[in-house]
Amino acid sequence: MKRIGISTGGGDAPGLNAVIRAVTLASIRRGWEVVGLLRGYGAFFDPSQIRILDRPAVRGTTHLGGTILGTRSGANPFERRVEQDDGSVVVEDLTEEAIAGFHRLGLDALVAVGGDGSMRLALKLHQHGIPVVGVPKTIDNDLAGTNVTFGFHTAVDVATAAIERLHSTADAHDRIFVVELMGRYAGWIALFAGVAATAQVILIPEIPYDMDEVCDHLMARERRGRRWAVVVAAEGARPVGGDFTWSKGVGGGPVERLGGVAERVAAEIHERTGKETRTVTLGHLQRGGQPIPYDRLIALRFGAAAVRQIEEGEFGVMVSLDPPTVRAVPLELAVSRMKSVPLEADVVATARDLGICLGE
Ligand code: F6P
Q1: Which residues contact 142 (CB under 8 A, 6 or more apart)?
Q2: Is domain 3-150+289-323 in CATH 3.40.920.10, yes or no?
Q3: What percent of the chain has pLDDT over 90?
Q4: How far away, in angstroms, is 140 Cα from ligand 1 center?
Q5: What predicted TM-score, i.e. pTM, was given to this entire model?
Q6: Which end of the chain has a smaller Cβ tally under 10 Å, C or N?
Q7: Domain topology for 154-286+342-353
Q8: pLDDT tens digits, 207-231
């Protein structure tokens, strides 16, 4: 009999509960016990922060958004920042404490569900002898080593519907809308949703934008009698030679947050074209709510595959979608680089061929 721990870390993504359910049911089927670590890795430091996952605990959860275990994004949970009397900050490494916490919980293996930050922590645990299997999650789809992360296609679905809804109101008022989508350092959501919903301009972090090109494109369209447009901007889009747009950080949470690129782009478009230009920021609407069936299925497949990895005793890996199958790749590969949109990707070429301006 094994005791399996499962944690969900970083920003949530639709499909987390489906992973938890698959890990739980596949483990119970093997006669193992599953322990959910609450809010990321809190249980390593406070053993009361767990929830035993039995059949009733995961019943009817496949389609639910969020995570029944809770999660935390931002600060590294294996570090403690201690402010000194002189105002300086000393960072204490809590890795050894975390490892002691893993053993205190009597765990035989850990399933770590998360994005790049969580996979880095998983690798660190593995290097310290903890048997760990990673499961790739992020709506941004920027994790290397897997064709796709669960949650991404749900975010694209939400964003596509939103962009499409703006077409009619933009048309009615002869306005330009700038829609800000998530995608910190990779423009997958903006590119996929923008192409699927026929945005007129798509700005992604991988292609720094030139505002002259954007405005020329919009004004050429205006001359053809199309007096409205939707511009999609990933939150990490930035001008040629310019910086990201950082959020003002109100409301607490992670301090270094991106946000506000839509306002920046809209102001410039208005200044140069004189057009009425409005903004919409979809934000966490892209992360909340039910996963679409595709994401549920990937999440269930990932969860079940993670348990099979544990059964085979193969650790230090992340389950990954390598169509048409799910396999495992070394965690090192997952954290080796960020998976940005390759400029030679056919979807980039498709956008250009459709006459969509990429700000270049
Ligand atoms: O990594 C996914 C993501 O959705 C990013 O696109 C976004 O910048 C970030 O999370 C926001 O995270 P939080 O909700 O912690 O501010």
Answers
A1: 115, 116, 183, 184, 185, 186, 188, 338, 339, 340
A2: no
A3: 95
A4: 8
A5: 0.96
A6: N
A7: Rossmann fold (3.40.50)
A8: 999 999 999 999 999 999 999 999 9
